[in-house]
Amino acid sequence: MAISSVDKYARQRSLEILRKKFASIAKRILEGKKPVLIMPKRVLSNTIYDMKKKLLLLGPEMKRRSLLDVNEARKFMQTLLMASIIYEALVNDEYPTIRDLYYRGKHTISYRDISGKLHHENTWDEQRESDAVIRDIEVFLGVLREEMLILSKEKGKVVGNLIIKSGDDVIDLSKMGHGAYAIEPTPDLIEFKDIDAEFVLVVEKDAVFQQLHRYGFWKKYKAILITSAGQPDRATRRFVRRLSEELKLPIYILTDADPYGWYIYSVFKIGSITLSYESERLATSNAKFIGVSMTDIFGEEEVAKNINKLASIFGKEIKKIISKHGKKAYLSEKERRNYIIKAKKKDVERAVELVGYDVADKLISNPEIKKYIRQKKLGVSGYPWFRTPEWIKEISIFFSKLAKLEIEAMASKGLKFLADTYIPAKIETGDWID
Amino acid sequence: MGVMSAVAPTERYRAISPAEFFYKYREIAGFSNPARALYQAVREFVENALDATDSHGILPNIKIIIEKADENREFYRVTVEDNGIGLPPHVVPEAFGRVLFSSKYILRQTRGMFGLGAKVAILYGQMTTGRPVEVITSQPNLRRIYYFKLRIDINKNEPIIIERGSWRKNRDWHGTIVSMTLEGDWSRAKQRIKDYILRTAVVTPYANIVFMTPDGEIYYYERVIDKLPRPPKEVKPHPYGVDLELMKRIRDRSSFSTVKEMLMKSFQGIGNITASSLLEIAGINPDLSPKSLSDKQLLELVNAMKNYKRFRAPTSEALSPLGEEVIKAGLKRIYEPEFVEAVTRKPSAYQGHPFIVEVGIAFGGKVPLSSDKYPTLLRYANKIPLLYDEGSDVSTAVVKEDISWDQYLVRLPAPIIVLVHLCSTKVPFKGVGKESIADVKEIRNEIKLAIQEVARRLRVYLSRKLKEEEKKKKVVSLAKYVPEVVRALTIILGDGQGEEAKLLEEKLVEIVSLRTGLPRDEVYKVVKSVEIGV
Ligand SMILES: Nc1ncnc2c1ncn2[C@@H]1O[C@H](COP(=O)(O)OP(=O)(O)O)[C@@H](O)[C@H]1O
Ligand SMILES: [Mg+2]
Asked: Beta strand pairing status for A223-227 and A55-58?
């Protein structure tokens, strides 16, 4: 296989940066100075929500990872170990996956303590550990893993009237049969050749994706249909971003009506906390949440009932969230009873993390859950990007009803309903959250 | 029994001799069965040997031999040799042949004190094997060595000399060799005897002790210190410890012309003035002859002395504590500990008897692991090891109840030994076994204070050690990564050759050593121990 020039350039650049950064560490050591790696902190407290750009960005705080700090020494060693493996892969024109890197670096270090006792220690035990080290190297070098030609398992899928070029092949994404095109780990190397679509629909659930695909949804409505199969990986997010940015397609996101679904939407739109250093490249800031929203299930009555409670937190302004004519639910009382699921404690906890303890405390009436949340989450302030009127409205319903709903339920009301009524109606009436 | 006899006209009366008494009731003296007898015989002769040496300023050389003395029967010959003061030849038959004959009936701390030990052992041997005891002895100023073969006439409580002899000394030898045969049970007594000798060796680092067993083993405890404990001095009794019987004895034996003189010369701490006021309280004319005093008057006098508040505390001159140096040397000789400290408390008194408590603590080294309840205890009374009844001993109560070992950074079980030595002219033993000391308030308190004092020093040591270990642990947790870091760096720097790697490693070792304050070669040792596997 011929190595593309894009590839070669990326390799060269990554190698140079790697060499330069680590040479300076070696130099420090030879000068007798403390060996430290200085890199941005990848933690919630150093994640900034940029209100203007509507992006989660890495803050200015730096951490010093020193070999001489007992709590950091192991991480220091792991970072250097990982850097050396990546370095070797780059030099040898390889494309390791993050799992490969995990295996290549995993070995035992045996040593004797002061009393002479022999100990064994693994460089890392689980892939979670080595994945975190890769992220550290990305921020330390300011180079993304894709640029270092590190691959990961493909997760996202796409179908639609879109012709792309990947490597040396031209692929028509409308000719995938019942299958779909797996979004490759380096989506920047894809070239868009031709397109005949009006919007992009991203569904959280793979199963729903397959149903809509077989139903011919994308053909009928001129859509590009994508699934992230749960939490979206970097490639899927980058791919969606390019569709939005380069092909100027509107992006609609369809998830479960629960805190996890809402968070998935926010990851597409503004970025994630663990990968905030990548937001500028991955986030699709005009992605819209078309459902399933709580008001689709319950209408607005529930909000109206609680509006004064919300006003006591957010002021009178909040009352504007109720539309003048009053939104009607897509589900009848009976359907609702059949489809909704009782929220689990974990769901409620997650929702509190999104919108804040004050809202939960005001709205939850179930005394047991209220007490539980008080014990677990008292003082949690919520993410600023979820403390917007639209989301407060959504989540307030969740708290007062303590119910959630999976998209599959909408499909079981009839695939036809989902494909021909629900989604088109939501798009036509602009019934989404932006 | 005497009262009962009045109603039993057929009863026959006779007195028995002390020899016969102890022959019949030998369990009292510890000779209840062959195993116990063998152990007890060794003890008696070893203690006599030590009394004849260290109490007289002689550095002891002691040899103990136990050998099988009959092919078919369980007869054992016990020989104990010392380099002590020896015995004058004319005393030998009585010393080894008459029960209740002793040189130790005086107020002075010795191991033996009843004139019993050797004789009961000899009696037991005589009764079980029929063989006589042999004694070879000479004193420092004598030119000859004397030899005796003796038997005890049980009815008369008298020695029977079977053989005697003497020969010229051609070298400067003094001391005693006692040799006797008894029926024993070596396999059952073995552990006790070894324990006893080991524990004796702990407190006699100034002695050479050789011990040869019937199994052909030889234990040798070599002298490690030339310092002897202060020898005990003979003292007069303290008035607080007096009773009517003692008073009668003094009266009967005295050649004093007046009661006042008798008081002043027979007791410690009674001068002219004190004697006068005591006699005034008792209503006795000071000029009376002691012999003319009635028992009733003596009782008045005893009461007056008992209630008198202004006596000085009893003198401790009669006591012979081991001393801190000896205790430390002894614990070192046996256990080679990493920490050892000892304290000898100031003299104290209970009920008119002076006593001194000494405590030593050994930690680490070859000190065996203690139980998880309290440290291993080595108890001594007047330098004699106490091996049994540990549970009821006052020292046990102290280490279990009065001391919280946690507070001294001792996490039980631990390699820790606590040695407690009580010396006194009267040790308050519990029961006839003489293996445990009673819980006397004053003594318990002194033991507690002594242990606390030494334990505080142990805590200082342990906390320093703990810090040092923390530091070392820290170094290990850094240094173990050095080789991996060096390897990674040299890969990235593109220099797979040794040069750069060696330099980086050296520098890293230096940096780690500088930052942690641990010597370079210790850091290097850890780095060198690392192996990177695949
Ligand atoms: N090895 C010895 N060296 C010198 N004197 C000894 C020795 N063994 C015994 N004696 C003398 O014999 C006496 C009687 O000994 P023993 O029967 O053991 O009674 P005790 O030791 O209680 O006095 C001792 O008081 C001591 O004077
Ligand atoms: Mg004796």
From this structure: unpaired
Q: Is the CB of B49 under 6 A from ligand 1?
A: yes
Is A9 among the residues known to form the active site? no
Look up the CATH architecture of domain B14-221.
Answer: 2-Layer Sandwich (3.30)
Q: Residue B484 is which amino acid?
A: E
- pLDDT attached to residue B2: 41
What ipTM, to 2 d.p.?
0.74
Query: Which chain B residues touch A if contact means CB-CB below 8 Å?
Result: 469, 472-485, 487-489, 491-494, 500, 503-504, 507-508, 510-512, 514-516, 522, 525-526, 529-534
Cα–Cα distance, B286 to B524 (Å, whole number): 86
Q: Do A77 and B494 touch (CB under 8 A)?
A: no
What token pair was written down for A276? 């905030």
Q: For residues A123 and A106, is the Cβ–Cβ distance under 8 A?
A: yes
B372-393 pLDDT per residue, tens: 999 999 999 999 999 988 999 9
In angstroms, the CA B508 to CA B433 distance is 66
Pairing type for strands A118-122 and A108-112 reads: antiparallel
- Asked if residue B410 has pLDDT above 50, the reply is yes
Nearest to A32 among B475, B484, B510 (CB): B510
Summarize the confidence of residues A61-79 as an average pLDDT. 92
What is the tens place of the pLDDT at every residue in B328-373?
999 999 999 999 999 999 999 898 788 999 999 999 999 999 999 9
Phi-psi region of A411 (alpha: psi -120 to 50; beta: other; left: phi over 0): alpha
Closest in B484, B515, B531 to A81, CB measured: B484
* Alpha carbon distance A243, A221 (integer Å): 17
| Stretch among A199-213, A265-279, B20-34, B299-313 having the lowest mean pLDDT | B20-34
Whether residue B508 and residue A32 make contact (CB cut-off 8 A), yes or no, is no
Token couple for B386: 């106490």
Structure tokens at B237: 């009794």
Rounded to the nearest whole angstrom, what is the distance from the C-alpha of residue B96 to the centroid of ligand 2?
A: 10
CA B199/CA B222 separation, integer angstroms: 14
May I ask the CATH architecture of the domain B239-307? Orthogonal Bundle (1.10)
Question: Residue A204 — pLDDT band, cuts 50, 70, 90?
Answer: very high
- CB-CB under 8 Å, A80 with B533: no
Cβ distance A85 to A58 under 8 Å?
no
Cα dihedral B514, B515, B521, B524 sign: negative
A331 or A107, greater pLDDT: A107
Contact A140, A21 (CB under 8 A): yes
- Residue-level pLDDT at B443: 97
- CB contact (8 A) between residue B485 and residue A76: yes
CATH domain A157-291 topology: Dna Topoisomerase Vi A Subunit; Chain: A, domain 2 (3.40.1360)
Ligand 1 contact via B266 beta carbon (within 6 Å) = no
pTM: 0.63
Pick the CATH number of A5-148 from 1.10.620.20, 1.10.1240.10, 1.10.10.10, 1.10.540.10: 1.10.10.10
Express each pLDDT in A282-306 by its tens digit: 899 889 999 899 988 888 888 888 8
| Angstrom distance (rounded) from CA B287 to CA A104 | 109
Closest to A203 measured CA to CA, from A278, A154, A268? A268
Assign 3-state DSSP to chain B and report helix, strand, coil percentages, each to 5: 45, 20, 35
Kindly give the distance from the C-alpha atom of residue B2 to the centroid of ligand 1, in angstroms, as a whole number.
34
